[in-house]
Amino acid sequence: MKKGRRITDIPCLHEEILGVIFSRLPVKTLLRLKCSHKGYCDLISSPWFMTLHRKRFSSDPDNHCIFVQTGKINRLIRIQNPGNLIKLNEPCRTDYTVIGSINGLICLATNIASRQWICIWNPSINQYKMFPVHSDNPEKTRKCDVSMGFGYEKGCDDYKVIRVLSYKTGWPLTILEIYSTNSDSWKEVKSDSRLIKLNTCFCNVIVEGLPYWVAKDLDGSTVLASFVWSIEKFFIIPLPEEVITKSQTFVATNYHGSFALLAYSSPSKFKACIDVWEIELDISAEECDWKKKDTFHTDFGFSMHWGLTGGGIVVENAPNMPFLFNVTTKQRWEMGINPILSLSNYTESLVSIKGFRRVRNQLKRKRKASNPVRARLS
């Protein structure tokens, strides 16, 4: 039998046409192609192709995933196949906090040797970068609330991490520490007044690269706060009046690429109503306009819910197993994970940043450690 001829080049296709074809392929396939031919490697490694691939995958709901943290075994779940729990080769221990996820990068905060570290990780290409926080002096952070955010400044193609230190006394009352992956360094920005108090230790959602928090203003009213990287300031957003007066609870979410609120109210014990509020922002004019986009009715109540980029929600209906709910088709799928500590949207990408290195095979090491014979041989 003759051996099959290996095709290593397609000379009749222009590079841009080949790039459009390759942009439809998953990351694992592209990584194999890079190893098969130098021309493919140069094409797939080019910035324009990485951007094209990222935009195509992020715009297709079929490619969206959920990164779920449970505290023990963390998993990646494909929204189109919720029963398939994907194991991850994680760069650090499971006792970390997820700050946020964007463009295929997941930002984590963890503690190593009594010091806090930040980890930016791309599970798709199995690479990460670890760096310490700007200031981890206990005396400096003892009398303040600390919250972190992660995002992307599109204008300069820069991924950034922010630490917000809100002091109860002293001057200044708020210090912002910003890390830039382009410069690989932290810088400190001081604020002369305490305008808001962030409700969580990490941002609630990331939309178009900007991190958003649920916060309290000086009067104690609940507001939303978005940090704008280009001007290094917070943009304060009031809630819709109807959400304040009628909703039992709400969550901030990335709804089909736009910032939105999922506001929950329950007319009866076993039924719920979810209003979707979208916002139009004019940051330069510091103006915003809320519009009720949709209203969904369900035949169940729930204790907690998280919004997803594609418009679905994950519902925790204690004491039952959390499930994924499609608000359009009304379909439900049990996730097989309980409890859920945090949940982040994720889309695979080829995005890499300066200083990335390969994650050691943690899954292989765990299997070897569980086998005494293999552990002794190694």
Automatic annotation (TrEMBL):
Gene: LOC107062770
UniProt xrefs under InterPro entries: F-box-assoc_dom_typ1, F-box-assoc_interact_dom, F-box-like_dom_sf, F-box_dom, SCF_F-box_component
Every F-box domain range: 10-49
Domain F-box associated beta-propeller type per the UniProt entry, residue ranges: 81-331
Lineage, highest ranks first: Eukaryota, Viridiplantae, Streptophyta, Embryophyta, Tracheophyta
Protein's name in the database: Ubiquitin-protein ligase
Source species of the chain: Solanum tuberosum (Potato)
